[in-house]
Amino acid sequence: MKFLDEAKVYIRSGDGGAGAVSFRREKFVEFGGPDGGDGGRGGDVWVEAVNGLNTLIDFRFQQHFKAQTGIHGMGRNRTGANGGEVTLKVPVGTQIFEEDNETLITDLTKEGQRFRLAKGGNGGFGNSHFKTATNQAPNWANPGLEGEEKTVWLRLKLIADAGLVGLPNAGKSTFLASVTRARPKIANYPFTTLHPNLGVATIDGREFVLADIPGLIEGAHEGVGIGDRFLGHVERTRVLLHLVSSMEENVGKSYKTVKTELEAYGGGLIDKPVIVALSQIDILDETELKKKAKELEKASGQKPFLISAITGKGMTDVLRALRDVIVEASGTGETALPDRSTPVKEDSDEDDDE
Ligand SMILES: Nc1nc2c(ncn2[C@@H]2O[C@H](COP(=O)(O)OP(=O)(O)OP(=O)(O)O)[C@@H](O)[C@H]2O)c(=O)[nH]1
Ligand SMILES: [Mg+2]
Hints:
Keywords: Cytoplasm, GTP-binding, Hydrolase, Magnesium, Metal-binding, Nucleotide-binding. Its main location: cytoplasm. It is found in: Cytoplasm. Belongs to the TRAFAC class OBG-HflX-like GTPase superfamily. OBG GTPase family. The protein has five helices and 16 strands. By secondary structure, it is of the alpha/beta class. It folds into two domains: about 150 residues, Spo0b-associated Gtp-binding Protein, Chain: A, CATH 2.70.210.12; about 170 residues, Rossmann fold (3-Layer(aba) Sandwich), CATH 3.40.50.300. The strands form four sheets. A six-stranded mixed sheet has the order 12-13-11-14-15-16, sandwiched between helices. The longest helix is centred in the last third of the chain and has 16 residues. The protein is rod-shaped, with a radius of gyration of 29 Å. Bound molecules: guanosine-5'-triphosphate and magnesium ion.
């Protein structure tokens, strides 16, 4: 699947149909008179969040969306039909911005949420509308109003409960693969992951959505590496899991590098609860493990979880910790799950707590 999280599209709502100028003229009918109908309304342009999409890739192939013009009014007081509308179908989590790519128009966070981006022009009045006592035969009608046209940006910010952050090779994708059914690419070179991946983790019969994003390196906020452009996808999570690899010489420094990038990004990331874990601990012996765990604790100010996605050590504990923060942060214990089409496990009876 190709991933695209930003797209620029041109939209135009339909013009209104023109009103008609028409007079009733019939043999043997004494009283005729104006009977031009009104034009139909132009079609609207809507945007709607739908399930089953997690990329804006469709908008790379189609960037113009035009609704139909209203049908003109006709004689015998017939009103024209309204123009057909068009609906842009986008993934849940898509935000729509004005052409400046800064002014937010709407944020579609729930499945089925709709928003009208451009209103179709009203149809013009036909001449029967203008008859008065003093002018019983108006020979004019209104043209329809023009539709609106504009360029908007679509920006997707995935909706997940927890986000994985860390340097390249920290084992983020391996973590995701070991606790969910997601199968991201894993390899021992930096920037294996080029776009975000989502998966559903289950712990003690509860599910939550976990997002894996490309690794961050020093200067990511200035565009170094893949940069921080995917951090938007963890902006809406309730908790971050910061993985620091046991393979790092200096785990304290590695931790701080990523923390600095999170700070530089802004977007409220630094205010999110963060759980810190030392990953890939299976490669360390007892003494090294103690030493690195201490270093990381000193740098982060919290006791890191010690985990190995390969052996499974510590994984349950860290999942529980994530779940606890998610449940607490949401109050209701509701997760991002209802909006995702993912395989449902057998314990689905307690999932409908929307
Ligand atoms: N021994 C051991 N190796 C691990 C563990 N987790 C991941 N690895 C290895 O570490 C390397 C990097 O793992 P990835 O999961 O691709 O790392 P990443 O953080 O997703 O890396 P990027 O996508 O490049 O940012 C791979 O070769 C993995 O097999 C672990 O728990 N133990
Ligand atoms: Mg990866």
